[in-house]
Amino acid sequence: MMPARDFAILAATLGLTLSTAAAAAPAIDSPVPYIVRPGDTLIGFAAAYLRNPRDYLSVQRANQIRRPKALKIGSTLLIDPNLLKSTPIDARFSAVSGPVDLETNGAKAPARAGMVLVEGQRIITGPGGFATFEMADDSRVTLPSNTSLRIERMRQILLNNAPQRVFHMDQGRGVISATPNPNPSGRFEVRTPVSISAVRGTEFRVGQDPTGAKAQTEVLKGAVAVDLASAATSGPPVPAGFGVSATPAGVSAPVALLPAPKLGAGGQRQGDKIVAFAVEPVTGAALYRLALSRDAGFVEIFAEKDSATPAAAFGEIANGTYFVRLTALDGGGLEGLPADYSFDRDLDVLEPGAAPSAQTSGKHRNFLFRWSAAGDGVRSFRFQLFAGTDAASPIVDQPGLSEPQLTLTDLPPGTYGWRVSAVRFKGGTFSEKVGPMQTLQIGQ
After folding, report:
1. Which of 31, 42, 203, 362 is most buried, most CB within 10 Å of its CB?
2. What's the topology of domain 86-256?
3. For 249-293, how does the pLDDT look when each residue is reduced to its tens digit (9 = 90+)?
4. What value does the CA radius of gyration of the chain take, rounded to a whole number of Å?
5. b/e map of 345-374 (b: 16 or more CB within 10 Å)?
């Protein structure tokens, strides 16, 4: 174990904010140091920096000061941060999708983009719910489905202009992008029932299982100090590209994250009814995670799937340009490095209808063929009917149909094959889609 002094020096070099630790769980707020300057008095200090000027008595007792009007220049006072004046850090939802609640004083209300967030509130994402909030310095927290995060501290202390941002994740996961802050007293921490992840500027993920017995931290950029919530010592910071797991027994050694997966062929053009992706397999992957977003920064995530196989389907999605993020999870549950791809959703579906049945009209038997097409643009259809399964020479070849149907009369008994193709005109260009061959048996 690295000596505490050496670890502190290394952490300062890396720009980390270390969480203080005691024999029990450390307090959310650590004392704020203040170096006495010429002319300072406790009463003058209290008037300038304390929320209640009479709290100078608490500062006097905590620092064992006998003469409040004769402070020793250069000495250090330790101030309870809860006594200090502060201003709230502006934070707002930048994206909300699906069921997301904002809990304030025990009362829940649906969250929506643009809502202001304050200390003490809890963000709860339900199944299929996603939320992202951003702070004034462009730091960002993105929460996927089934996550609960409480805002413990989100304030700027006037005494030292130090931002204090402390979040508690009860369960679920979060992706955090913390903008670097040069103030050595600034704090950015994500706490779980098991662990504390503390940084000053980096990008990382934190996850907490529903039982509260295991937490995981994966570092994408920078470095993160990860401690047990009840630890008295700290290990070295976790570097980028590595992750750790924390249980009440301790924090694991850093594990290299799995590499970013590659998107399979055809994934960036999505024209079928179901949006589906194939992923090139990653050695060591136990699970694959795919997330869909409306923006390249993955602020507005709207769907996510975990799959034991390197593939996932998302159902129907409106036309547009979207983004998919791919990650692979190892057997211990650590999520690997991400790969982001854009994809175009342009629905272009051609589906045959039910097999036609004969409808008698006078002495004739009419066979109605139907099919369906979906997606933007103007289409014309071509119908082909083949004798047997030989698709070389159609016995009926009817192009230029404007409606998705055609009636044929008095077809002889036998086996037939039929198919439809569609020519679509959209955006000044033509494209063709050929439907599958269908088999039809016609009896006497």
Report:
1. 42
2. Jelly Rolls (2.60.120)
3. 999 999 999 999 999 999 999 998 899 999 999 999 999 999 999
4. 32
5. bbbbebebeeebeeeeeeeeebbebbbebe
Q: Is 443 exposed, middle or buried (0-12, 13-18, 19+ CB in 10 A)?
A: exposed
Q: What backbone phi and psi angles, to 5 degrees, belong to 397?
A: -140, 100
Each residue's pLDDT tens digit, 346-399: 988 888 887 787 777 666 788 889 898 888 899 999 999 998 877 778 999 999
Residue 35 pairs in a beta bridge with: 76
Q: pTM above 0.85?
A: no
Looking at the DSSP assignment, which residues form a beta bridge with residue 401? 381
What is the CATH T-level fold of the domain 349-442, as seen in this structure? Immunoglobulin-like (2.60.40)
Amino acid identity, residue 77?
L
Q: What is the mean pLDDT of residues 159-188?
A: 92
Cite the residue boundaries of each domain of the chain with CATH code 2.60.40.10: 269-345, 349-442
Those residues with Cβ within 8 angstroms of residue 7's Cβ, 6 or more apart along the chain or in another chain = 18, 234, 235, 236
Kindly report the backbone phi and psi dihedral angles of residue 356, in degrees, each rounded to the nearest multiple of 5, phi listed first: -70, 150
